[in-house]
Amino acid sequence: MERQNTAFQPSRESGVTSLTLPSQRNLAPLEINQLYQFSVSLICGQDTSPNSVITVYGWVQRVAVSNNVESTLKRFSPKERISVYAKQGLWFDLVSTLADLRACNPSDSALLATWVSVIKATALLKAEAIARESTAQRAIAQQPLLQKCSSP
């Protein structure tokens, strides 16, 4: 098992951001249908004691996309791809594309509504009580995206 560690210096602004492994590490691509576990730890300040570090764990799996879906995606605009990604369960591509579209079109209410739906659908805060969960999910979904627009 190969382990990668990357330090990330967050912005001083509050909001939603993305993390990317540095490209210069020459990492092998993920194997199709292989499960990979990842973790993200939040360390605030100098205190690295276990009680001061927040860590979340998750799993990711690269899946094969059929030729039919691949050709459809090539024909569609990024906005049109969102529904294909959702139907195919391609969550990384869905969230990444949607985040980029929102960064490029921050006042598009339809994109915001889709973003809120995706946040709710992924059940990011499953352990919380339902009422509290809905409030927290809306709060996360309403946060500004800290990434820059990378589409024309």
Description:
The chain has about 150 residues and is of the alpha+beta class. It folds into two domains: about 30-65, no CATH class; about 65-145, no CATH class. About 40% of the residues lie in helices and about 10% in strands. The chain is built from five helices and two strands, in the order ββααααα. The chain has helices spanning about 65-75, 80-90, 90-105, 110-120, 130-140, and strands at about 35-45, 55-60. The protein has a two-stranded antiparallel sheet. The longest helix has 14 residues, at about 90-105. The radius of gyration is 17 Å and the shape is globular. It starts with about 35 loop residues before the first strand and ends in a 10-residue tail after the last helix. The model is unreliable at about 125-135 (pLDDT under 50).
Nutshell version of this structure?
This protein has 152 residues and is an alpha+beta fold. The chain has helices at 67-75, 78-88, 91-104, 109-121, 130-142; strands at 35-43, 53-61.
List the helices and strands and how they pair.
Blueprint: E1 35-43, E2 53-61, H1 67-75, H2 78-88, H3 91-104, H4 109-121, H5 130-142
Antiparallel strand pairs: 1-2
Helix pairs in contact: 2-3, 3-4, 4-5
Strand order of the largest sheet: 1-2
The count of strands amounts to 2
Beta-strand content bin: 5-15%
Estimated structural class: alpha+beta
- Gyration radius, rounded: 17 Å
Mean model confidence by pLDDT: 80
Residue ranges: pLDDT <50 for 5 or more in a row?
A: 127-133
Q: How much helix is in the residues?
A: 25-40%
Domain tally: 2
Q: Which series of helices and strands comes N to C?
A: EEHHHHH
Helix tally equals: 5
> In one word, what is the shape?
globular
User: Main sheet, how many strands, which sense, barrel?
Assistant: 2 strands, antiparallel
- How far do the termini sit from each other? 39 Å
